[in-house]
TrEMBL record:
Alphabetized UniProt keyword annotations: Cell membrane, Disulfide bond, G-protein coupled receptor, Glycoprotein, Membrane, Olfaction, Receptor, Sensory transduction, Transducer, Transmembrane, Transmembrane helix
Taxonomic placement: Eukaryota, Metazoa, Chordata, Craniata, Vertebrata
Annotated source species: Seriola lalandi dorsalis
Keyword Transcription: no
GO molecular function: G protein-coupled receptor activity; olfactory receptor activity
InterPro entries reported in the protein's UniProt record: GPCR_Rhodpsn, GPCR_Rhodpsn_7TM, Olfact_rcpt, Olfactory_GPCR1
Name assigned to this protein: Olfactory receptor
G-protein coupled receptors family 1 profile domain span: 44-296
Entries under PANTHER family matching the protein: G-PROTEIN COUPLED RECEPTOR, OLFACTORY RECEPTOR
Length: 332
């Protein structure tokens, strides 16, 4: 415990340091890199949301959960990246005391939300493949919308407990956060008192919200594989495998890097420098939101068909070559 905790000067703001070993001549390049990541994430996921809104053929449970994941990815990138970009573009890494805790809460909130969305995604595929006759009545659009709203609400619980407990603790020392954003790990080292109890609670909560859903996801996909292998060979089996492979890619990208980061402290003679830890965190936090829209477009037949139809309509409005375009389209 700290001494004289009643006579400390409370920190009024925090400063995002980012990569501590990065030389100033690379600041602008790094800022442009994160700006490109943010624009790509926002535009790619927003395109999926617009497509879902305009195309009634996509108003199905599977696409409802995909849109929910796209909105969550936009939210995470919006919370995490603007201040990091400002830190390297204008050397402005300062965050107000409560603003930092708000960012910490939202960072962990969207992480928890993504885990619950992936759980819902796996549940949808499990019911669709293992109980195909009952699926239309068990998983309607209204049911999926209700599950999605439930995930968006309950995801606040565990991050909220951690955020409140850390907000009430004294911060009387350094205020520089050696990270890309405010989170539990970075703020723990700035508290003036012993945080082992609070950190253990936060760590246990994170493990629960991440790996309890993962356990069900693994179980559901084992059941799915068994059910698919029992199917007669043909197009139905390939379509099922294709749909599951799309979601399997998304789930793998989300969980595998996190697992590596969490087990690193328990591996003897394996340590991570602050720069490596920040780079790994940024990878598993920002790579899935960037790559998810491309996975949807490349792996989902319905979305590829919609894109193709949109492109053909766009070409069709050109009056001088309208006939040629129709002829080319029909010949293919």
């Amino acid at each position: 415990m700290c001494r004289n905790c009643t006579n400390y000067t409370r920190v009024s703001e925090f400063v995002i340091v980012g990569f501590p070993s990065l030389q100033p001549e690379y600041f602008v390049l790094v800022a442009w890199f994160f700006f490109f990541l943010y624009v790509t994430t926002a535009v790619g996921n927003l395109l999926l949301v617009v497509m879902f809104t305009l195309e009634r053929s996509l108003h199905e449970p599977m696409y409802i959960v995909m849109v929910s994941l796209a909105l969550s990815d936009i939210g995470f990138a919006t919370v995490a990246l603007p201040k990091l970009i400002a830190r390297y573009w204008w050397n402005d890494g300062s965050l107000g005391f409560h603003t930092c805790f708000f960012q910490m809460h939202m960072i962990h909130y969207f992480g928890s939300l993504n885990s619950l969305i992936l759980l819902t995604m796996a549940l949808d595929r499990y019911l669709a493949i293992c109980f195909p006759l009952r699926y239309p009545t068990m998983m309607t659009n209204q049911t999926m919308a209700g599950l999605t709203l439930f995930c968006w609400g309950i995801a606040h619980i565990f991050p909220g407990i951690s955020t409140i407990s850390f907000t009430l603790m004294p911060f009387c020392g350094p205020n520089k956060i050696i990270h890309a954003f405010c989170d539990t790990m970075s703020l723990k080292s700035l508290v003036c008192v012993d945080t082992s109890r609070q950190y253990s609670l936060a760590f246990a909560s994170a493990m629960f919200i991440l790996y309890v859903p993962l356990a069900f996801i693994i179980f559901s996909y084992i059941c799915i594989v068994i059910s698919v292998l029992r199917m007669a060979k043909g197009q139905g089996r390939m379509k099922t495998f294709s749909t599951c492979a799309t979601q399997g890619c998304i789930i793998s990208i989300y969980y595998i890097p996190r697992f590596f980061v969490y087990v690193t402290p328990f591996i003897p003679n394996l340590t991570m420098t602050p720069d490596k830890r920040i780079a790994t965190t940024i990878f598993y936090s920002l790579f899935p939101p960037v790559i998810n829209p491309f996975i949807y477009c490349l792996r989902t037949k319905e979305i590829k068909q919609i894109f193709r139809r949109w492109l053909q309509k766009r070409k069709g409005v050109m009056p001088t070559k309208h006939g040629q375009i129709v002829a080319v389209t029909m010949s293919n």
